[in-house]
Task: structure prediction
Amino acid sequence: MAIKGDLHEISLPTLVQLVIQEGGQALLQLRHENGNIGQLYMDNGDLCHANVFHANNLKTAVQTGEEAVYELLSWRNGEFHVKKQVSPPARTIKQNWSYLLMEGLRQLDEKQLAAEELPQEDSIADILSELSQSDSAIIQELMAQKETDTMASKTEQLQSILNSVIQNSTEIIGAAVVDNDGLLLASALSGPIDGNRVAAVSAGLISLASRSAQQLNQGSVTRTLIQAEQGNVIAIRTGSKASLVALTPTGVNLGMAFLECSEMASSIQRVL
Result:
């Protein structure tokens, strides 16, 4: 028995989820209001193949596989037709449906943001509101996990930058990346020096230097140097939200130290 309807009545993500839950083999065929045709093939609870055809050429697919899925997720208008017991002609999709849906929503959101149609947060919220409660919860959980993974990846990159400089520099003996609130993002410090203490003290130092420069009408602070009896502290901005703090012993070539810190700060800024 075939199932027909309109995408105004049920969103494509919810429709695909329903067909997948039914199990077995099925073809979900879509016809956009502009005449383009989309095909989604399911087999034993998996989305395994997809095609998109232009209205002026219904014999040759212009998009297949995951690329076709992402295109179809952008369709809000059109008709759908579910046919059961239809074998997939090929298998072009390797990712599971949850991943495809999350990535498709992300790509759609980026396109809408670029076109200045909707703010990014509103766009995602609008799309999620069309899903069932369980689907929406799954996508939000996946998005949160992806954000966590991204943050972990950034931390690893920052740590790698700091470690590389400390291991190869004769001028710098310790370094840390701190945000404007005094939180430690990454550090490469030796001995009894506590990274969190460095972060807190450095944030206060940078804030004081910035306020002092403004009061003296000297503009924004790009770097700060403190020379003490047992060493130097160099602080350099790495953008609007974080700073690099480096420690050096006394008697170093400060010009070389500043150069290494500037290069390190540029690398950190690219990561952040």
Observations:
- The two ends are 54 Å apart (CA to CA).
- DSSP finds seven helices and eleven strands in the chain.
- The helical segments are 12-22, 65-72, 97-114, 120-128, 133-168, 195-215, 254-271.
